[in-house]
Design a protein that fits this description.
The complex is a heterodimer of chains A (286) and B (260).
Chain A lengths: L1 H31 L6 H18 L4 H27 L4 H23 L14 E3 L2 E3 L1 H23 L1 H11 L1 H6 L4 H26 L6 H15 L5 H17 L9 H15 L10
Antiparallel strand pairs in A: 1-2
Helix pairs in contact in A: 1-5, 1-6, 1-8, 1-9, 1-10, 2-3, 2-4, 2-8, 2-9, 3-8, 5-6, 5-8, 6-8, 9-10, 9-11, 10-11
Chain B lengths: L1 E10 L2 E11 L4 E5 L6 H8 L7 E6 L2 E2 L5 H6 L2 E3 L12 H6 L10 H6 L1 H21 L15 H14 L4 E5 L7 H18 L2 E5 L3 H7 L3 E5 L2 E6 L1 H5 L2 H8 L12
Parallel strand pairs in B: 3-8, 3-9, 6-7, 7-8
Antiparallel strand pairs in B: 1-2, 1-4, 4-5, 9-10
Helix pairs in contact in B: 6-7
Classes of the chains: A mainly alpha (286), B alpha/beta (260).
């Protein structure tokens, strides 16, 4: 029983990280209609930006988080405006392939700048809390709390501002959105800002949980996509639920499977979901 | 208000609209009727900028707006509704309305961070306006329902409500009455009349329900096979022989039936 609870805690931590990544993937898909393969590497980039501030300013990863988010959002907009924007009028598959190329390019740049070796935000050991026999690392608490704050912020943004509503409108019914004069180009930029910032947060959290490596983001891209699809791609609220389900399922699977199969579990859920309910857990809603 | 000048549109050999000319007069409710396939909706699509005409011009308040995209015409006060209602199905009714007004400061991402007070104040104003519109349309009981769950008639009212969130001058209504029950239809007509009388909206309505046309519209323009057959008051139109042939099917009008 204790095992299951312990894994549940790990699952929620992983789920929080996947959620933040899946929100961006889902929103980009909803508005631009293509699967953004460079999202994982955008997460990596965010993590390394975090490292720059942690080392340079000697602050905690959590304090570096907003800075890394802002910087990554800027890079996301830059990539979109210089590369994706030119391809938007072509077939979505061309955008998809170009995002794959962007993923490779980002990873290589990261390796060039920061090297191929693993790095950590903070060395030394953390003393975990023990609650009823469960092990809870302080970083885990911060990760979950950070994700909750960001998700609540996102919710307020999507429901309380014109921009947020315009984003939801555009992913809901593009034709109607264009006809009613919603500023499409601005919505697209806003989507990248949000997607990039969320990806950076996921990357920094991932780095806090384990260690930084040029492929950390790429490694979780598959579960991130699984989470986005599970929640119904294009629906940011679905991505939140999808992230949690995938994260928890991946951790719980280690009860009876080798941990190396964790991504396979995410993949299996994704395939099953596409076969059974391609519109996501909540069908047409949320 | 709107001048349609010799507009034609072909679809692979079929003359959908064929040298069509008429005016939509300011402050009036113009009816546009004609048998199926007469080119009414195509004409609407051309006027609202959804498709390009092959020839001819469209003038809005004296300015040539031929071929301008829909969103630009929208900001100039030319709004259309759809025969099959469109909505943002995963947003609530009130959000569907709140997303319409342009130029809110909440549209700029930075402002939502740097000037949250101002954004919130504007948001409140827009919300009040949306609530006003919802009251006007008597949809208060479903204001927080997802638009996808509304009935067909309620979605038609939402279409009308959307036009009210803008500073619309001309509203093109494509079959507002189709698929709407009698009670709701009466409400819809009443809303249209009030918008026209109290707020000075100019309307052009495509409708097959002669009740609606007779009650609301003057003048009435009759189209058949892409051309304007005649225009004038409903009585004038009803007694026109070409119209009887094309539309009312001979004896119907003589018997005094309202619906063909």
């Amino acid at each position: 029983m204790l095992d299951v609870l312990q894994l549940l805690i790990y699952g929620v931590v992983l789920g929080s990280i996947l959620t933040l990544g899946a929100i961006g993937v889902s929103m980009v898909f909803g508005i631009l209609r293509f699967a953004h393969f460079a999202h994982g590497d955008m997460m990596t980039l965010g993590a390394y930006f975090g490292l720059v501030f942690v080392v340079g300013l000697e602050i905690s990863p959590l304090a570096a988080l907003p800075l890394a988010m802002g910087l990554t959002a800027g890079v996301a907009v830059l990539i979109d405006q210089t590369i994706y924007r030119r391809l938007r009028r072509t077939a979505p598959v061309i955008l998809l392939i170009s995002s794959f190329g962007m993923a490779l390019a980002l990873r290589s740049v990261i390796q060039l700048i920061w090297g191929p070796n693993s790095q950590v935000f903070q060395s030394g050991i953390q003393i975990p809390h023990r609650v009823f026999g469960l092990i809870i690392k302080p970083d885990h608490v911060w990760i979950v709390a950070g994700a909750v704050v960001l998700v609540i912020g996102l919710h307020l943004f999507l429901t309380r501002t014109k921009m947020g509503k315009a984003m939801r409108a555009m992913s809901d019914n593009v034709d109607l959105a264009l006809v009613t004069g919603i500023p499409a180009e601005r919505v697209v930029m806003g989507t990248w800002v949000l997607g990039g910032a969320m990806a950076a947060a996921a990357g920094v959290f991932l780095g806090m949980d384990t260690r930084l490596h040029p492929t950390i983001g790429w490694g979780v891209l598959l579960p991130v996509f699984a989470a986005a699809i599970l929640g119904g791609i294009g629906k940011p609220y679905g991505a939140i639920a999808g992230g949690m389900v995938i994260g928890i399922a991946m951790e719980l699977s280690t009860l009876f499977l080798e941990p190396t199969y964790k991504p396979a579990v995410a993949f299996a859920i994704m395939v099953a979901m596409l076969v059974v309910r391609p519109s996501g857990l909540f069908g047409g809603r949320t | 208000m709107i001048v349609i000048d010799n507009v034609s549109k072909h679809f692979s050999g079929i003359r959908a609209v064929d040298g069509c000319s008429f005016r939509i007069a300011k402050g009036r409710i113009t009816g546009l009727i004609g048998p199926n396939g007469a080119g009414k909706t195509t004409l609407f699509n051309i006027v609202a900028g959804f498709i390009r005409a092959d020839t001819g011009r469209v003038l809005l308040e004296g300015k040539d707006v031929t071929g301008q995209p829909p969103h630009r015409l929208f900001h100039r006060g030319l709004v259309r509704t759809f025969q099959i209602p469109q909505e943002f199905s995963r947003m609530t009714l009130i959000e569907n309305l709140m997303v319409v007004p342009a130029g809110q400061s909440g549209e700029r991402l930075l402002a939502t961070w740097l000037r949250p007070g101002r954004v919130a104040a504007e948001e409140r104003r827009v919300r009040e306006k949306a609530e006003e519109v919802i009251d006007f349309l008597q949809l208060g009981h479903v204001a927080r329902e997802l638009a996808g769950n509304l009935s067909g008639g309620q979605k038609k009212l939402l279409e009308l409500g959307r036009t009210m969130m803008t500073d619309a001058k001309v509203v093109l209504l494509d079959e507002p009455g189709a698929g709407v029950n009698r009670t709701l239809l009466a409400k819809l007509c009443e809303s249209i009349r009030r918008l026209n009388e109290e707020r000075g909206y100019t309307f052009c309505i495509i409708e097959h329900d002669m009740d609606v046309i007779t009650r609301l519209c003057d003048p009435v323009v009759v189209m058949a096979q892409g051309r304007v057959l005649t225009e004038g008051s409903m009585n004038h139109v009803r007694s026109n022989e070409a119209v009887l042939d094309a539309y009312f099917g001979g004896g119907a009008a003589a018997r005094g039936d309202d619906t063909p």
